[in-house]
TrEMBL record:
Keyword Nucleus on entry: no
Broadest EC class assigned to this enzyme: transferase
Name under which the protein is recorded: Cyclopropane-fatty-acyl-phospholipid synthase family protein
Region (Disordered): 117-138
UniProt keyword list: Lipid metabolism, Methyltransferase, S-adenosyl-L-methionine, Transferase
Membership in a protein family: Belongs to the CFA/CMAS family.
PANTHER family given in the database record: CYCLOPROPANE-FATTY-ACYL-PHOSPHOLIPID SYNTHASE (PTHR43667)
Domain Polyketide synthase-like methyltransferase intervals: 156-414
Example of a GO biological process term: methylation
Top-level lineage group: Bacteria
EC number(s) on file: 2.1.1.-
One MF annotation (Gene Ontology) recorded for this entry: methyltransferase activity
Entry-linked InterPro entries: CFA/CMAS, CMAS, MeTfrase_dom, SAM-dependent_MTases_sf
């Protein structure tokens, strides 16, 4: 009798209309496909049922997170091959596989897959998946979304991020380490903001306190850091106390919309604005504008996506929304600049760090894989698999120019019209 893998490869190539770029190893131990390519391992029939009941990215993600599906070989090579099968074949009619169902031969092939998959019952969703029907971006829903992602456990994040505890794009030199690259990023932000002794800095989405600590220690500023994550705040306060900087740094569990003790001389928002949402972004920009003194500066460090011909067609990434950043929305850099300027800001500099984020993500994957058993003990196998997949896939997206990372320097320019920035701002002096 023909092994399940051979049958799966035959059906897959019929569906795709092209040779399969990966090998398949099935639950019965059979293996088929082009030698020397990555191996997609279906540990059980449930993996196939997940892909059948939710074709595309979300079904693949569920199979991966649950441990029903695995990959052997280089992770990045495997993801690139799978991207060609799933993401790059999607169209406005629901994806290449669904579109192909119009063909009678394809329908027959799907029927064979259903027989291979076993009883036609949809497997339960992995417990790591977030379930909700609407993206509200209320204070309550935003707090829930932030808790889902950031309250995984500080020990787990220490393992992935390393000693810097900075969870955003680093700023790399040719031969730097992750720790020096993150330090250089924090210094770049401080320098762009022109921080000086005695000034007030608001750090929106302060994480585990790394930006606040660097700014207070190296530039003598007074910092208020706000986060919606109780675990982050507890960790950051401990670091502040150990550094002897409680007189200069205050860490709050607070929504940025509830900050009311301005004016501030500068605001840093590093990797936070992706959580705001398109409908709330102008409010976000106006709130930060109102918290700055005239002449105050905002450094907005944010992931961007490529623009669409019809922006109304934008949809949240299924896997990321369900497992990683619930309610996270990305906008093109042009949209972000426009919204900041609509709020009253004068945008003075935009710098792309796209390749820097790819390097950062790859280093985080190395950290995770090097201590995999500990990561599983700390966060559970499903959560560890989520982080490994999303970080590796994101690295490829930054390398392929599907995603970008930009630092936008904006000023609340005084009524007199002079920004106070140097004539040659890229020197970052003055």
């Amino acid at each position: 009798m023909t092994g399940a893998a051979t049958r799966l490869v035959g059906v897959a190539e019929k569906l795709l209309g092209a040779p399969l770029p990966v090998q398949i190893r099935a639950w019965d131990g059979s293996q088929a496909g082009p030698p020397g390519t990555p191996v997609v391992v279906l540990h059980n029939r449930r993996a196939l049922r997940r892909l059948l009941f939710k074709p595309g990215e979300l079904g693949l993600g569920r199979a991966w997170v649950s441990g029903d599906l695995g990959l052997e070989g280089d992770l990045y090579t495997a993801l690139q091959a799978i991207a060609g099968l799933i993401w790059e074949r999607e169209d406005g009619e629901g994806g290449g596989v669904l579109h192909a169902l119009r063909d009678p031969g394809v329908r027959a092939a799907i029927g064979e897959l259903i027989k291979l998959a076993g009883p036609p019952l949809p497997p339960p969703r992995p417990p790591e998946e977030v379930r909700r029907s609407r993206h509200l971006h209320t204070r309550r829903s935003d707090k829930r979304a932030i808790s889902h992602h950031y309250d995984v456990g500080n020990d787990f994040y220490e393992l992935v991020l390393g000693p810097s505890m900075v969870y955003s794009c680093a700023y790399w030199s040719e031969d730097g380490t992750l720790e020096t690259a993150q330090r250089d990023k924090l210094e770049l932000v401080c320098t762009k903001l022109g921080l000086r002794e005695g000034q007030r800095l608001l750090d929106v989405g302060c994480g585990w306190g790394s930006m606040a600590l660097h700014a207070a220690r190296e530039h003598g500023v007074h910092v208020v850091g706000v986060t919606l994550s109780q675990e982050q705040a507890t960790y950051a306060r401990k670091r502040v106390a150990e550094a002897g900087l409680t007189d200069r740094i205050e860490i709050r569990v607070q929504d940025y919309r509830d900050v009311a003790d301005g004016p501030y001389d500068a605001i840093s928002s590093i990797g936070m604005a992706e959580h705001v949402g398109a409908q709330s972004y102008l409010e976000y920009a106006r709130d930060l504008y109102a918290l700055l003194r005239p002449g105050g500066k905002l450094l907005n460090h944010q992931i961007a996506r490529r623009p669409l011909i019809d922006e109304s067609e934008y949809q949240l990434d299924g896997f990321i929304d369900a497992y990683v950043f619930p309610d996270g929305e990305l906008a093109p850099i042009g949209t972000t600049v426009t919204q900041l300027e609509r709020a009253g800001f004068e945008v003075r500099d935009v710098e792309s760090l796209r390749e820097h984020y790819a390097l950062t993500l790859r280093r985080w994957v190395v950290n995770l894989e090097a201590q995999w058993d500990l990561a599983v003990r700390l966060a559970g196998p499903g959560r560890a698999r989520v982080w490994r997949l999303y970080m590796a896939a994101s690295a490829l997206a930054f390398e392929g120019n599907e995603l970008g990372l930009n630092q936008v320097l904006a000023v609340r320019t005084p009524d007199g019209g002079m920004s106070g920035l140097p004539l040659r701002p890229r020197t970052w002096h003055g």
